[in-house]
Design a protein that fits this description.
The protein starts with a strand and ends with a helix. The protein is of the alpha+beta class and 291 residues long. The protein binds flavin-adenine dinucleotide.
Length: 291
């Protein structure tokens, strides 16, 4: 590891000023589960690491049944899991977080860090896409809001400019009658990178209209919502023909890569299988009144 300076400012202004320095390569540090590994293995070099964990604005979780959920970017995955309102009103978020990494990883890894890594294989992002999450990005001029599905520019690339900090993520108010599932495929013990993941969320609006959301991990250069497949299912509990059609839409839309973990054809086949399983499971939960 090459040497670098470390600072832990206590105000956003101080953090932003340091991160904006044009004469230095600067990086935000949150939980460090990704950044420290990159510094250690030499894939990233930096002059200055700015720790954001002492910034109070980034550590809050606030839930209101009318306005929804505000998650500070430096909230850890274990803090998400321990929050009773999240468990109750955003069960898909709870279920997704509890299966990310190990307990030790979840005690360090933050929501904002998972998003800002912008890895195609992130498990958290598809679920947040299903919940219509919005990113709140701080810069010296104020806070701008970017819907999560417009936050990614490509594999490990985001819309964040130098000096900008993701401060929080907001999720709109939940619908009481909803069901969701995140299914992921990993290679096995000791291997945490998801080969393909499918998040499906269905919300029963006004006791009549079912609103479907589908998003995938490791199926394209960024985690991706599959709006065409959602349209196929929209409005009802789908029958087999509708599910077949939605699965075909997913398989035609995604563009997974081939790498040392899996080939593109295998990922595409497994995306279809996992998506079918997720849709069927969500449909039966809604039918059975298990929410
Ligand atoms: C053993 C292990 C198992 C794992 N298992 C899984 C898994 O099952 N599923 C999964 O999805 N991931 C997994 N991960 C990846 C890990 O969960 C993510 O890397 C983690 O969420 C990143 O969060 P962090 O707080 O540690 O980010 P950091 O490492 O601190 O930062 C990551 C990147 O985001 C930037 N950044 C962080 N926060 C902000 C912010 N608020 N504003 C602007 N930029 C910011 C940093 O500069 C850096 O570039 C695993 C990692 C390890 C080491």
């Amino acid at each position: 590891m090459t040497t670098f300076d470390y600072v832990n400012p206590t105000t956003l202004e101080a953090a932003g000023e340091l991160l904006s320095r044009g004469d230095l390569v600067t990086n935000v540090l949150a939980g460090g589960t990704n950044l420290i590994l990159a510094l250690e293995n030499g894939s990233l070099q930096t002059d200055l690491v700015v720790d954001i964990k002492a910034l109070p604005e980034l550590k809050n979780i606030h839930f209101n049944s009318n306005s929804g959920l505000m998650l500070g970017a430096a909230v850890t995955l274990n803090q998400v899991n321990a929050h009773t309102d999240i468990r109750r009103h955003f069960p898909l978020l709870f279920e997704t977080c509890k299966d990310i990494g190990s307990c030790q990883v979840r005690s360090r890894a933050t929501v904002g860090g998972n998003i800002c890594c912008a890895l195609p294989s992130s498990d958290l992002i598809p679920t947040l896409l299903c919940y219509d999450a919005v990113c709140h990005i701080w810069n010296p001029g104020g806070v701008r809001e970017v819907p999560l599905d417009r936050f990614f520019k490509g594999d490990q690339q985001t819309v964040l400019a130098k000096g900008e900090i993701l401060v929080r993520i907001s999720l709109p108010a939940p619908v009481a009658d909803a069901a969701g599932v995140y299914n992921k495929l990993q290679r096995g013990q000791g291997e945490y990178v998801t080969l393909v993941g499918t998040a499906v969320l269905a919300r029963n609006i006004n006791n009549s209209e079912i609103d479907w959301r589908i998003a995938l991990a490791a199926a394209a250069p960024t985690p991706i919502r599959i709006y065409a497949a959602e349209q196929v299912l929209q409005g009802s509990i789908p029958d087999k023909a509708m599910i077949d059609h939605a699965v075909e839409c997913i398989k035609h839309t995604i563009k997974p890569i081939s790498d040392l973990r899996a080939g593109a054809a295998y990922r595409t086949t497994m995306a279809g299988i996992l998506a079918r399983r997720s849709i069927e499971s969500v449909a039966s939960q809604l039918l059975g009144g298990v929410h």
